[in-house]
């Protein structure tokens, strides 16, 4: 299954129905086509597409929604584009063999990105201005996905190769703390209040709630098959995993730590062909967007009912996604 997830596909995305009640735009990194696309959420149509960089992955929008940053996983840079017309305004080098993947554009205006090839996290201060970079080593293999605390004092990575979660102190630069968490931890998300760190371990079919400082496991939650990503609803009441091998989403009540339901995005038989990866909530928490990489589509799911409302274009093997209002 994982081998097939790395191969390009020529399947065309079906036309998406319009929804005038929805505003904003979805940005899609096409990791096979090396593209960045903008999808208008009202019309459901791609309104702009540009060449990006080699094997682009995760995306993050600026606090004012005027820019989107792209982690160039096949290279060494974080590239920044305008959200209105996708004009590239900056390319920020992170160093030899950086392979940036996870990325966060913090409310403080700084960018944070994993540099997987360098076993580190890079903080990019004033990314649209003079731009200064600061590197923090994890010392772990495959530091892949990233979360940053609301006060920007700490960052956490999932380290696929080392099978660990690592806490970095971004202020005092104390030695990083790493602990083993399940088999192949990959997804990571911090609760809005910064009090709980959620991790999905794709090899264990589990989600774990951790104390962010000690990294002690607080809750162990069985979820679906191969939970590649985990996100927290903006309201903080639910966590959701993207279960690649099931073609489904597992919904966890964050207060009780119990899985309360599963939402089918595609059938298990279709799961490998579609290969759902990244998931993202709308800002109001009412919809969830699911990147179906091999199908070149982004499924839009009503969170309350679990109904797939429509499929938006995700051209070029859409993987990383970001949203603006």
From TrEMBL:
<protein>
    <submittedName>
        <fullName>YncE family protein</fullName>
    </submittedName>
</protein>
<dbReference type="InterPro" id="IPR051200">
    <property type="entry name" value="Host-pathogen_enzymatic-act"/>
</dbReference>
<dbReference type="Pfam" id="PF10282">
    <property type="entry name" value="Lactonase"/>
</dbReference>
<dbReference type="InterPro" id="IPR011048">
    <property type="entry name" value="Haem_d1_sf"/>
</dbReference>
<dbReference type="InterPro" id="IPR019405">
    <property type="entry name" value="Lactonase_7-beta_prop"/>
</dbReference>
<dbReference type="InterPro" id="IPR015943">
    <property type="entry name" value="WD40/YVTN_repeat-like_dom_sf"/>
</dbReference>
